[in-house]
Specification:
6 helices; 22% helix; 331 residues; 2 domains; TIM Barrel; three-stranded antiparallel β-sheet; globular
């Protein structure tokens, strides 16, 4: 049966199914005298009275969704919203979180408790759990955690989920390959296999193209650590935010090198763990729009039938960052 919602002074968001284009992050009831400082100005304002669209300013700000007719601001007007719960537009496979009870750089004793396990599984209702697969620590690349630190959290939460009959999907993401596999990358996107990346796992750098097979084996080894304690990994992402050269664990891929890496990694990983899915490219959605299409990772993957064969799940990061994204070379 349809359900109705009635309210005053509300911003109504109508989402078209599967429309996942950039939004600019602020919904401001601009005609109610609220603070507009720090609000993006490159949006679109839909005037509910005239039906006109105009650029959003700091005084007239609305939300923007990159779909058709997606926002409406109502000024002191009663609205009735009808929701037909019998009509389904998409399937939501699950809801999840990242990490432990505290940050991974926290103390081991603060990373898991049975009470926290009950809260995230019962109260929050998670069915997906994402973790970082950490590279080995080196002298210039200390790590927030390793398997010895993560394992008790994995065992605790996995057991809780089993006891509750919850099919918890555990997914892993790589922030950086091991330092021994990384090289410099030039501004034209070429990887210099004879030049080791001096910052180790930090600050960008690239996966050496002659290390793709070694990288695939390292991913297999990580999945095996979970398997050895009776926990199945549902999916793994070979790189978090592939165009971000940031001070913490990171690694830079061009769209072309990301696809070439997948060609080597996918068949090797699937030969050992055929049921483990590969997801990506975990890029910032705000960087998948604009004029510079050569850096659109998902656009490049979607345009390549061969690349699509090597990626099971598309994944995006939908938030804004002050970090400088966009390929500039890491030499």
């Amino acid at each position: 049966m349809p359900k109705s919602l009635i309210g005053r002074n509300i911003a109504l968001i109508t989402l078209i199914s599967c429309c996942l284009f950039p939004t600019h992050q602020t919904i401001a009831a601009s005609h109610q005298g609220r603070d507009h400082s720090g609000v993006p100005t490159n949006g679109t304002y839909f005037n509910a009275e005239s039906g006109d669209r105009c650029p959003a300013t700091e005084k007239d700000t609305a939300l923007i969704l990159g779909c058709t007719e997606t926002s409406l601001i109502a000024n002191s007007t009663d609205l009735t919203v009808s929701i037909d719960t019998n009509t389904k537009y998409q399937t939501i496979d699950g809801f999840g979180i990242f990490g432990g009870m505290d940050t991974w750089w926290g103390k081991p004793e603060g990373l898991y408790s049975d009470q926290w396990g009950d809260q995230v599984l019962d109260d929050l209702g998670i069915t997906i759990w994402r973790n970082e697969y950490y590279p080995p620590a080196t002298a210039n690349s200390p790590q927030d955690a390793d398997w010895n630190k993560q394992r008790p959290v994995v065992e605790g939460l996995a057991k809780k989920a089993r006891d509750k009959g919850i099919d918890l999907k555990i997914i892993l993401t790589v922030w950086s390959p091991p330092a021994s596999m990384k090289c410099t990358i030039s501004a034209d996107g070429s990887v210099n296999n004879d030049q080791p990346w001096a910052q180790g796992t930090k600050g960008g750098g690239a996966l050496c193209t002659n290390k793709y097979a070694d990288f695939a084996q390292w991913l297999i080894d990580g999945i095996k650590m979970y398997k050895d304690i009776g926990v199945d990994v549902y999916a793994i992402s070979p790189q978090n935010e592939p165009l971000g050269a940031v001070p913490y664990n990171s690694c830079v891929y061009t769209p072309a090198s990301y696809i070439e890496m997948l060609k080597i990694v996918d068949p090797r990983l699937k030969a050992v763990y055929p049921n483990v899915k590969i997801f990506g490219a975990e890029y910032m959605l705000e960087n998948e729009g604009g004029d510079n299409r050569q850096w659109f990772l998902n656009h490049t993957i979607a345009a390549s039938p061969e690349a699509l064969k090597n990626l099971d799940i598309f994944a995006m990061h939908r938030y804004f960052s002050n970090a400088q994204y966009g390929f500039q070379g890491s030499t």
